[in-house]
């Protein structure tokens, strides 16, 4: 098996922290043995700290971040109910696709790429549609856009709406306060700012979300991601039972990732992502490169969207970085494709030497194209 | 993180092969980088050998074995269509639960625990119900029962029925010939006879199954396991695109697991499981213990169900083995619970020294209870 070393500075996955690589190689445990249940308890404690919540309804889903989106929609929404989906890029678009599969009445609100939502416009949408669920990404990684979610949960609850938030990319990369912001369902990603391998998706529900789940008229259409059944494995109710085999080595990896966050301290982790973001833009700015997101307050620190200047071959820059430095720079995702590059400053990789390398690669690649 | 060493001889997961533990710690690759795509191609080749098929519609799902069941039902069955489900234990029961979520017209055929199906009775069910799909486990691990599937695919196709087979537990543990037996959809487990960690679920579809998928009237209800979308990542169609982030370290693990099978040779792997099964029953027979499955031809070699003799405390035997040898012996699953024990002889652990230890643990634990 040929696995060359790459420096992954695209939109994710990122390089895995060495402590996490070691942790996932610990011996296998049975899916219901005491030491594994203790690790699951510790994971829940770590997730509560990471998400800044005291909810007992917290767990890992055993699949990629998509599973969080699917579980959120499948459990919170009943067929025929209205869901307002903020589409600021690929993830919003996918959420709308999914919600239609679950036979929701989907109101898809498409924003211009790189433009964040204001609380006022979201309040207006809530008042107009009074949806059962509002979906929004804290960070939309396809465009590097960060939404300010403070006050949104309170606004939702005035209209009896549940707030479903995608934090796959932003978790640990930007401040997030689940309880203070009254978020009802939040999911995150392992392979972004947590520097773990994909496969363990942090997932959280509020009391309100659980109440909705327990009073559904129809069963959750997807069996694997039925949170009443998953919650039994994670001790949400009085008695523990297994729903499906946990992804045990991915659990180990997440247990270690959460310990690493706790060791550094969440505020310090947020600050480091912010510092590296500013260092990156200082370097790119000197090259004359511009961010897609105009408003500095709405730039996602951990995934940065860079406008490709007119006349520049975006793909040639990416190829130069990979050929010369084994350095991954990402393209945009549809429809932006080669209109932007994306640079991830994700967890373990959000470090000055990597930021400097990215700047160097851009400078050299642009020089090669004669860009002044 | 406290992860004591355990010898896992229950129904799975099993101890991970050291080569696989090493492989999953290889450096992370981007989800669309050439070296990862090459590994995915190699995995497909390995899976074709493992499953004895030439189908190009083969891949890994990024979740536990349950995902295979969910994907099989979600993709093959349309709402309102009839599915006959052979319930010989927990897995058949789960499949019926799932198929109802997907709004199938479910005919659940419950068999006595430990009794296999005959081709004649299955042919009769097909003729009576003419279902869109027939679901059956090759090996039902909750009761240690092995079904003979030869001829079943041909019988299904006479009634325009698709054959969906669960081989989570039996793959690599018992002979299986996907193409010769005309199976339309097969899924398997990583953490059983392949000795990999859970999280990479082998999944295969026949041309017939793909034809059904491509001519559905309604979209697949579950987005994550829509095989048209997953197939794009695994190069089933002309153009590759990513559906969701692959579980990359779990892919590495499966790549290595498949190499280990190929190194030993599939026939030798099957023979080793059979040999260890006979060695186990020789030892247990001398203690007066009896298998749940009466017919030797229908005993699953890799998961063995042992009747708990009258007056014996099943739980005390399990506790003795764990306390004395850190050895996991499993209980039955509902409704059998403490009516049986289950011994897994799974992949890397299917070795004489483990079989001898199991026999020793039973002898000592039974002696402690005064069982003659």
UniProtKB/TrEMBL annotation, chains A, B:
GO molecular function, one term: alanine-glyoxylate transaminase activity
Keyword annotations: Aminotransferase, Pyridoxal phosphate, Transferase
Annotated Pfam families: Aminotran_5
Chain positions found as N6-(pyridoxal phosphate)lysine: 192
Cofactors: pyridoxal 5'-phosphate
EC number: 2.6.1.44
GO cellular component: peroxisome
Binding residue positions for substrate: 342
Recorded superkingdom: Eukaryota
Segments forming domain Aminotransferase class V: 36-322
GO terms classed as biological process: glycine biosynthetic process, by transamination of glyoxylate
Family stated for the protein in its record: Belongs to the class-V pyridoxal-phosphate-dependent aminotransferase family.
PANTHER family cross-referenced by the UniProt entry: ALANINE--GLYOXYLATE AMINOTRANSFERASE, AMINOTRANSFERASE CLASS V
Protein name per UniProt: alanine--glyoxylate transaminase
Native organism: Symbiochloris irregularis
Lineage: Eukaryota, Viridiplantae, Chlorophyta, core chlorophytes, Trebouxiophyceae
